[in-house]
Amino acid sequence: MQKPRETYISWDECLMRMARLIAQRSKDPSTQAGAVIVDENNVIYGLGYNGFPRGIDSNSLPWDREGDFLNSKYAYVCHAEENAVYNSNGPVKNCKIYCTLFPCNECAKTLIQNGIKEIIFESDKYHDNPVWGASRKLLDLAGVKYREYKSEETK
User: Fold this and answer.
1) What value does the mean pLDDT of the chain take?
2) From CA 10, how far away is CA 50, in angstroms rounded?
3) Any residues with CB less than 8 A from the CB of 69 and at least 6 apart, and which?
């Protein structure tokens, strides 16, 4: 009798790869972020990537990182995490989210308000920025677990 293959990837690896894949839909020239929301059985509830709100032409607004607020992308871009919530196929209460980047404070609020219980992130490159300090504080106070995932491909 044949035995099952033992070299399959973990759920964490599978779902983080999906987050990386959906990030490739982003038209942002400098940062491509992706997020996948799943329930306790790892059934996908929502996918998201960073970009302008639905229906807005990607050439209509600035993609610049520098300059005053109204002339930079930061006034207009929806982040991957919030898009995953917006695009979900139902309530995401008690779900977990896989993110290519650690969520900012605005996304942390969205995740908390929608009942996300765990965040698995790949990069925390903005860790020392106060926005991400506020995010960690909010998540800690709300009891949302978070952990960094190191890819099986790089181990």
Assistant:
1) 96
2) 26
3) 75
Q: Where are the alpha helices (DSSP H) in the chain?
A: 11-23, 80-86, 105-113, 130-142
40 is catalytic: no
User: In percent, how much of the chain has pLDDT > 90?
Assistant: 94
Catalytic residue of the set 13, 40, 66, 81 = 81
CB 115 within 8 A of CB 95: yes
Helix axes 130-142, 105-113, angle to 10 degrees: 20
DSSP-derived 3-state class of residue 49: strand
Q: CA-CA distance, 100 to 122, in Å (whole number)?
A: 5
What pLDDT, in 10s, does the model give residues 46-84? 999 999 999 999 999 999 999 999 999 999 999 999 999
- At residue 9, the pLDDT reads 94
CA atoms of 2 and 140, how far apart (whole Å) = 47
